[in-house]
Amino acid sequence: MATKEIAGKTVNVTEEGYLTDPAQWTREVAQAIAAEEGITLTDAHWKVIDFLKKDFAAAGVLASMRRINKTGGIATKDLYDLFPEGPLKKAARIAGLPKPTSCV
Amino acid sequence: MKKILIIGAGTAGTMMAVHLSRKLNRKEWSITILDKDENHYYQPGYLFIPFGIYTKQDVIRKGAKYIPAGVEYLLAQADQIIAEQNRVKLKDGREIAYDILIIATGTNIHPEETQGMVENGWRENIFDIYTADGADALSKKLPGFKGGKIAIHVVEMPIKCPVAPLEIAFMIDWFFTNKGMRKDVAIDFVTPMAGAFSKPATAKVMGHLLKERGINLVTDFGTERVEYGKLVSYDKGTVDYDLLITTPTNMGDALMARSGLGDDLNYVPTDKHTLQAKAKDNIFAHLGKMSMKFVYWNILLKGIPVPGIASKMGRMGKIIPQTA
To answer: For an engineered disulfide with B244, which of B126, B154, B193, B301 has Cβ 3.0 to 4.6 Å away?
Structure first.
């Protein structure tokens, strides 16, 4: 466990830079993490992030790309355009959620 | 008299029937198990079929053979679970009321979920090893393979038996090494995950083993579509192949969708500690991992034969004496 200075805040993160305390997440933190990934957040990005956060709060697990598509209404192809090279990993990190584990 | 109903007489359902029939007071409980297929398939054996070690016949037995005396076995298909009324409607119109329901309908492959997979070479140059028919079809294809590119492929997670794609990759390597033609065969291992396996420690070891055997690892490959002889990813990556051994999208039984109990993949959301459905406390599901414990427990302690493997025990392993 490490801490990190981001967007003027000190946050707890894993070795791979995923937030461990959801209470430390703010929209400014999200923007700063996105900048590290080379992404400027637009409304389309926020739609994904908001869905992931809402779904995580309800289900207790990170949504799969299939779920983001079928339930969140965001096409997988668009997800790749928004968060290139590993969209779920990047979107989860920006949303302050755990790294996707993909099952067993 | 209270009733336990088990839907699905595969490994998990059968093991639950055996286990419960021994533990429960039979004056208080009756157990019914139903399956839509009279055959029981020993699925771990599928892996050996493509290489001629097993035949399809070796992994198929009559399901009734493994259902203990005193358990009612019905050959019928469930049409709908009416959870709030604790009853199941069957396709033939009958209904069964239950006190406890165990859903053990398993997981099936869905190649039609991937654009082009069915249309562009299914069972011609695209095969699966998660069905007896798929493994059997591959067993007819492999001996005549003259060399070229083989891709071992996973479409999306989760899948049942996550090690099976790795096992088949190593067995393909072994098969063509034995034939003296390994140099004529290029093997790609194509996965949507970041490594060869989901758990980092295993991924590291497996990644090393793949490399040692000259198997090329392609990670983070999100398959968008299949063209003839080519996998195409969402971010426009491609993998060419002469032979594709794929793990298509895995989904639970459509019964869950018909009953309003399933998620996006027709799996039943459960409490991860008790395997009780979130929708209703008297419904249990997701016996996959749990059932494997029962399988081992039963074999080790009670000497119950695993369907299909008994005939191979002599040379595949040792018979464990009955100790209970």
So the answer is: B126
